[in-house]
Amino acid sequence: MTTPADVHDVRDPEQPGRLLTIERDALIPLLRGRAEEDFARPVAACPGWTVRHVLAHCSSALTRVAEGRFEAGVFSPESNDQDIAEREGWSNGRVVDELERGLGEAGSVIAGADGKLDGLALGEWVHAGDVREALGEPGAYGGAGLPDALALLARITRERGHVPLHADLDDLDEPLRLGESGGERPPGRFIGDGPTLVRLYAGRPVDGGAYELAGVEAKELNIFG
């Protein structure tokens, strides 16, 4: 018999791209309506970066994926800083334009990369949550893309042999199984909502959200640290 957990282990190649296009349709109109000074707001999840820095990082990363440019050192901190610096003279509107294209075009390349770039799609979606939070907008690390993000997170953590966790989420009817112990460690337990779970796995502040975590420490869950 196939269980819900087994179904999640089967890679849906369209899922990362679908997550990105859902976020494109939600985030881009929000950015188009913001004042210029909002792009200079600091992003707490990315010390030293403003909203514009995060957007420039995301747009450049997605453009690299869409164009298949993966030279040595790509996506390293130094490469990220260089990408942001190359866009220093761009208007905010031009950065948003590039981000819109990247969110729409990168999915097909990610789909054909046999899972190697799936984590990048999840990371870009998390950064969109960072931006929403910096702008004081609701829906950070949630919204219409949350079901795909959670399924992607579950599969990635299992493929990486991450610390095992069973999550009972307000957002899903069935428990979500994350990580893989190989029987060496009993799974931890999370009770709460999906955005809070994403925050924990992304190493973002939980800000007093109501949740229960047992059998594992929050710092063990971070997949981007």
Automatic annotation (TrEMBL):
Residues forming coiled coils: none
Q: What InterPro entries has UniProt attached to this entry?
A: DinB/YfiT-like, Maleyloyr_isom, MDMPI_metal-binding
Against SUPFAM superfamilies, the record matches this protein to: DinB/YfiT-like putative metalloenzymes
- Supply the Pfam families for this chain: MDMPI_N
Q: State any single GO MF term.
A: isomerase activity
Gene3D superfamilies (alphabetical): dinb family like domain
In terms of superkingdom, the source organism counts as: Bacteria
**Can you give the residue ranges of the Mycothiol-dependent maleylpyruvate isomerase metal-binding domain?**
22-67
Q: Does the keyword Protease apply?
A: no
- Tell me which UniProt keywords the record has, alphabetically: Isomerase
The molecule here is called Maleylpyruvate isomerase family mycothiol-dependent enzyme
